[in-house]
Design a protein that fits this description.
By secondary structure, the chain is α/β, with parallel strands linked by helices. The protein has two domains: about 55 residues, no CATH class; about 270 residues, Carbon-nitrogen hydrolase (Nitrilase/N-carbamoyl-D-aminoacid amidohydrolase), CATH 3.60.110.10. The strands form three sheets. Strands 6-5-4-3-2-13 form a six-stranded mixed beta sheet. The chain has a six-stranded mixed beta sheet with strand order 7-8-9-10-11-12, with helices on one face. Strands 1-14 form a two-stranded antiparallel sheet. Helix 4 packs parallel to helix 5. The radius of gyration is 23 Å and the shape is globular.
């Protein structure tokens, strides 16, 4: 009985943690906005995605789903990671196909695609290749930035240590050798600002803090995006637990940053989560569909933006108390 007394602080700490979370979900005020954002889940089979023979069918599916979104009053539609299997900045056919959909529907389209830039002769590849995303709008005069994925999947997207051991580039297990993006990008659609992440970048809290709550380097003042967009292709997970685990991360990032997240996954699970972590809409695995939900924002700048390591402090304290609850009684028994 005495031993369990030392576990009381741990229980109280856990209760405080849960209680504060319960309190915050009922006191944070959300503001609803008119911007109509749809998320596409085209469910292109993994074996067809990069097959040139299926290119026209892929484009037609994107066009049909975009037209359906436009008919449902959408203003912005988010396509998944590498949705267009072509280098959009250089492939005129693919670029015209996308812009044809933009002008046919009147939508702003945010999509993923492969990209490349010139590289020096000594580089191990013939160009710098990137996993990219950008915004395409009916106004040709507006030049939008291109986001290059910052955090790459080891081996799957880039061979480990290739920078220091270039000969590893010759090892091929079916992986790509993308380059790392070096900066975050911010976009605007119909007056609302957002920042993107690609694939498992959603798993990394620190980069999502910087995306959602950018800090002005000159003034140090923290701003806030209206929402985040996550583009992914989880088709290679199949029916494993992968798509569900990846989906759950959306809720963590939304709550941490008090921001709404629109997640477009090629084969699922696409989801829209509000700043309180509530799932507003989702699409079942492998279903061909669009989902939508109202955009909610809040003015709260969470503490995590300033000290993003603080959740670990609670974990360390809890572990220390747990260890102490067993070690202290044993030490007293030995002393007596």
């Amino acid at each position: 009985q005495k031993r369990w007394r030392y576990a009381i602080p741990l229980v109280l700490l856990f209760a405080l943690w849960l209680g504060y979370g319960y309190y915050r979900t009922r006191t944070i005020e959300l503001q609803e906005h008119d911007l109509q954002i749809h998320v596409m889940q085209p469910s292109i089979p993994q074996e067809d995605k990069w097959d040139e023979m299926h290119y026209k069918d892929t484009v037609q599916r994107f066009k049909r789903l975009s037209q359906a979104a436009a008919a449902d009053s959408a203003q912005l539609i988010i396509w998944p990671e590498a949705a267009v299997p072509a280098y959009l900045r250089y492939d005129m056919r693919a670029r015209l196909d996308v812009m044809d959909i933009v002008h046919d529907t009147g939508l702003d389209i945010f999509t993923g695609f492969p990209d490349f830039e010139p590289c020096p002769p000594e580089h191990f590849d013939d160009a710098y290749y990137f996993n990219a995303a950008s915004l395409f709008t009916p106004d040709y005069d507006v030049k939008h930035p291109v986001f290059h994925k910052n955090i790459l999947v080891p081996v799957g997207e880039r061979m480990l240590w290739i920078k220091y051991l270039p000969f590893l580039a010759k090892l091929q297990f079916g992986q790509a050798n993308w380059e790392f993006g070096t900066q975050l990008e911010y976009f605007e659609s119909h007056g609302k600002r957002f920042s993107p992440s690609i694939c498992y970048e959603l798993a990394f809290a620190h980069i999502n803090h910087r995306m959602a709550l950018p800090k002005d380097t000159a003034t140090g003042k923290v701003g806030k995006m209206d929402f985040l967009a996550n583009l992914t292709n989880d088709g290679w997970f199949g029916t494993s637990y992968g798509p569900w685990l990846h989906q759950v991360m959306t809720r963590y990032r939304a709550v941490e940053n008090r921001i709404q997240i629109y997640r477009s996954a090629n084969t699922g699970i696409s989801v829209i989560v509000d700043p309180l972590g509530r799932e507003l809409a989702s699409a079942p695995l492998f279903k061909i569909t669009n989902i939508k939900a109202p955009l909610y924002t809040c003015t709260t700048i969470p503490l995590i933006r300033h000290i993003h390591f603080y959740p670990f402090v609670f974990v360390y304290i809890a572990l220390m108390l747990l260890v102490a609850s067993f070690l202290i009684p044993k030490a007293k028994e030995k002393s007596t």
